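Q: Sequence in, structure out?
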Amino acid sequence: MSLGPEASVTDETSAPTADAAEVRGPAEKAIAGRSLKQIAWRRLKKDKVAVGGGIVVLLLIVVAILAPLLTKLFGHPIDEYHIDQIDPTFGTPIKPWGGISSDFIFGVEPTSGRDVFSRVVYGAQTSLTVAFLSAFVSTILGVIFGTAAGFLGGWIDSMISRVMDLLLAFPQLLFSIALVSVLPYSILGLDGRWSRILVLVGVIGFFGWPYIGRIVRGQTLSLREREFVEAARSMGARSPRILFRELLPNLAAPILVYTTLIIPTNILTEAALSFLGVGIPPPNPSWGGMLSDAISTYQTDPMYMIIPGGMIFITVLAFNLFGDGLRDALDPKAR
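A: Exactly. Output:
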């Protein structure tokens, strides 16, 4: 039985041609969905300033971790005196530019002749350790109390909010000076450097949590009225499940951004406390302590002030640039 011309025409028009499949293929690929992580990563990669800040941050972290190895390869022990590099009359480095040479790539410390490179590297280890650990403490406390205040509401919200207002009213730096100065020199059997690092982490982390607590509380108040939370309640989900499965995943972005931005503030706080003499005790190296020692010699040896000051500036700037870029990348309203 032969088919009519209408049937042959219908077969020809209904069967997809190879050219149509080729045209439809790229279109389907073009509208392929992307996850929020992929979108954020694409945005972050396009921000060259943020990427540069992130690279500097990674380099500083590597330097802090490899401080003993770098000191062994390119420097000298942090407490090794090199009096032969110091002018006995003026107490300043003999060589120009703060004593910079092939043996001392950042120069030597006035009066004592200690290697500045080794002390800067170990100072990076101290500053980043205090900054990261205190940011971790602030984030944990801020998330716990901020989420509890925003999710539970009522008298719990009022009490936690008043505590945050009270802590925010304290002059953090002055209170930290008073608190650190009266605490014992050695804690938990640790030496002077690590026991004081532990004290600084506790003090800076404790006074830092109300800032992130307020942000988390505000975000939680907004999220708990959203449709997906109401849908979870209508399906019989209990409060712990709503909190851990619905709210906290949506709070991850602002928590991550604020944690990144609070780290440079902690670096400055640690440097200020060491500069004022209540931070890392000498002869342990710290950037703030080096700036404090440079006050008496900056007119004759400015390099000893410029190098640690420049390290603080570069570190804080890199963290701020990376934090700003991360905030823009994770912002759902950004284009």
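The chain has 14 helices and no strands.
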